[in-house]
Amino acid sequence: MISQITKKVIFILVGIVVGLILVFVAFEFYWRISIEKVQVKRGNLKVTVSSSGHLKSENEANLSFKATGKIAYLPVKENQQVKKWQTVAALDRELLESALRQAKQDVIAADAELEKVYDSLRNKSGVESFDDKIKRTAAEAKKNKAFDAAKDAEKALANAVLYAPFEGTVTKVNGSIGEWVSSFSQEPLITLADFDSLYFEAEIAQEDSDEIKPGQKAIIGLDAKTEEKIQGEVYEVPTFTRTNSEGNVIVPVKIRISDYTGGLKIGWEGDAQIQIDEKVDVLLVPKKAVEKLKDENIVYVFGKRGKEKKRVRLGAFDGASWEILEGLKEFEEIAIKK
Q1: Three-class SS string for the chain?
Q2: What does R_g of the chain's alpha carbons equal in angstroms?
Q3: What angle do CA 282, 285, 289 make, to 5 degrees?
Q4: HSE-up of residue 123 (Cα within 13 Å, Cβ side)
Q5: pLDDT tens digits, the chain, 338 residues: what are they?
């Protein structure tokens, strides 16, 4: 007869087996209701590089006076259209002309003072003492300084007018009539832009920059026009990098805007999708169908014994789908989590 202890052991073992079966069944049931079957299909894949950026103008000028003076003429205002070579600002010429006259008088006075020193040396039969040398050197330096000041005054008068270097729109004015401006000012008096030469500057991450080439197509989405997409084309990939406001090293790629007539504004921010490759008639699976296990890429398929793991070799990726190079066949059913 089976002992009481043996019965307990058998009962426990049966309970464990039943429990494992229930767990397996429950897991299998959960797995099946939490996944959906999808067929591996062929399709086209566009590989893109995404980047943020903003609109800029190819022709943009910061206009400042190369002279210090008082603004006497400032006929333009922000958002005003100007013609090429149109006068956009001028300094008070009377003050500059007065400064030039004084500078020329200083040259004459310095020259007369130097001649007196030379006359003194000639009266001494050309013998120059140490004190005479100091006087002569000081007089020559004074004349040279006065001469340079006169030249600067002439340049200031010649630079008393600012002209528009191209036809465009005034985007900023930092001054008013009667205000004094300095030639050393770091802020431009007038900023001018040509809206016919707008482009989108995409801040491409340095690790993606080698994939970007002139001629690649791009789609631009602007934050200010969320319902519209603008067609573009890469036309310049610089050979230098820059650090953006977030401290990341980027390559500022220029994208030409194609066939867009809507009102755009310099500085508008947005995103660009640059197409770097296109795969035609390739095997595709959704992104969430692929799992990474150690160094392998795994896809779950439906076989005779239920779900089975298959190792796959991946190709291009467009953010939503993977290209399958090896491991799956067309129309094969795979499992995707809902």
Answers
A1: CCCHHHHHHHHHHHHHHHHHHHHHHHHHHHHHHCEEEEECEEEEEEEEEEEEEEEEECCEEEECCCCCEEEEECCCCCCCEECCCCEEEEECHHHHHHHHHHHHHHHHHHHHHHHHHHHHHHHCCCCCCHHHHHHHHHHHHHHHHHHHHHHHHHHHHHCCEEECCCCEEEEEECCCCCCEECCCCCCCCEEEECHHHEEEEEEEECCCHHHCCCCCEEEEEECCEEEEEEEEEEEECCCCCEECCCCCEEEEEEEEECCCCCCCCCCCEEEEEEEEEEEEEEEEEEHHHCEEECCEEEEEEEECCEEEEEEEEEEEECCCEEEEEECCCCCCEEEEEC
A2: 39
A3: 160
A4: 7
A5: 456 666 566 666 666 766 666 555 554 554 555 577 888 889 888 888 999 999 999 999 999 998 888 999 999 999 999 999 999 999 988 888 888 889 888 888 888 888 888 888 777 766 777 777 888 888 888 888 988 888 887 887 878 889 999 999 999 999 999 999 988 888 999 999 998 889 999 999 999 999 999 999 999 999 998 888 899 999 999 999 999 888 999 999 999 998 766 678 889 999 999 998 888 998 998 888 888 888 899 898 887 766 788 899 998 888 788 888 998 888 888 888 76
Residue type, 79: N
